[in-house]
Design brief:
Enzyme class: oxidoreductase
Number of strands: 13
Strand content: 15-25%
CATH topology of the domain at 2-143 and 175-206 and 251-268: Rossmann fold
CATH class of the domain at 2-143 and 175-206 and 251-268: Alpha Beta
CATH superfamily of the domain at 2-143 and 175-206 and 251-268: NAD(P)-binding Rossmann-like Domain
Protein name: dTDP-4-dehydrorhamnose reductase
InterPro entries: NAD(P)-bd_dom_sf, RmlD-like-bd
Distance between the termini: 56 Å
CATH architecture of the domain at 2-143 and 175-206 and 251-268: 3-Layer(aba) Sandwich
Structural class: alpha/beta
EC number: 1.1.1.133
Keywords: Oxidoreductase
């Protein structure tokens, strides 16, 4: 199976490359930008196109959101002209106001934000005009490296001694980019073998948690590992924000369909964070300049 991936520097693109390198049944062609022409599809002849998500579109620059939506539409038109399946990953933030109960796939987002509405309109057109598509809605992605690598950004900020601020009243399911990459390749392999299970799916980590609790847990686990290594680092703190005073905003995706159709189980975000922190610590061993003052006491 040959996949064409856009936006080479995105954390999900890097995760897909790592996953493909562990397998012998997947070939990846990765484009540097979020741009595609029908002629490029003719050259590569992929079995599917994969577009990584625009992370945190609610706080992104409006021009970036518009550009992403327009690029997705151009990709959809190219795929339609060459009958190439399209997989587009989108942020759970499209469900701007959340829901009290877990959100099923058939619930189409109806945001008030103009930028989010552009992304929803792109999804509507894909569903209407390109039968062979996967729209995969993701919880907040985290990874150690690449664009939108939330966990890497948190670690850099904490180690620099700067404080982090996170909402204590926004509940979601953090999602490992590595877990998404493994799931996407498995899903597309089944489609390539004739599953024909096109449509919208939800993919997120297990255990809903507030942004504040997630960031606090990352800080605690980081401090524990650094102490175990004998390193003294004055980590930045974590401060709680509260924007939804009446009740927490819950943005929790119901992921049963991806399990029932493709057999994809959600990975616990705590285990994924722990694994990535272990990898981050090993990388420090290979980079002496990254090590901080060691407590000699």
């Amino acid at each position: 199976m040959k996949l064409l991936i856009l936006d080479a520097g995105h954390c999900l693109s890097l995760a897909l490359a790592r996953e493909a390198n562990r397998r012998s049944d997947v070939e990846l062609i990765i484009e540097p930008r979020l741009a595609l022409t029908p002629e490029r599809l003719d050259e590569v002849r992929p079995d599917a196109l994969v577009i990584p998500p625009l992370s945190r579109p609610l706080t992104a620059d409006p021009a970036s959101v518009t550009a992403h939506a327009e690029a997705v539409m151009a990709c959809m038109a190219a795929c339609r002209s060459r009958d190439v399946p399209l997989t587009w990953c989108v942020s759970d933030q499209l469900y701007e106001d959340g829901f009290e109960s877990p959100i099923d796939e058939h619930v189409i987002p109806e945001p008030r934000d103009e930028g989010l509405r552009r992304l929803v309109a792109a999804g509507d057109r894909i569903r209407a005009e390109l039968p062979r598509h996967l729209i995969v809605r993701l919880g907040p992605l985290f990874a150690l490296e690449g664009g939108h690598a939330w966990l890497g950004e948190l670690l850099d900020t904490l180690v620099a001694g700067d404080d982090l601020r996170a909402e204590s009243d926004v509940i979601f399911c953090p999602t490992s980019a590595d877990a998404v990459a493994m799931a996407l390749i498995g899903m597309l392999q089944q489609q390539h073998c004739g599953a024909e299970a096109w449509g919208s799916y939800h993919l997120a980590g297990t255990e809903p948690v507030s942004a504040y609790t997630f960031v606090s847990m990352v800080r605690t686990q980081l401090a524990t590992r650094l102490e175990g290594r004998g390193e003294t680092v004055a980590l930045g703190g974590v401060k709680a924000l509260s924007h939804h005073h009446d009740q927490p905003l819950r943005r929790v995706l119901n992921c049963r369909r991806v399990l029932n159709v493709f057999g994809v189980h959600q990975k616990p975000w705590r285990l994924e964070v722990g694994r990535m922190l272990d990898a981050w610590c090993l990388a420090r061993d290979d980079d002496p300049a990254a090590s901080k003052e060691v407590d000699q006491a």
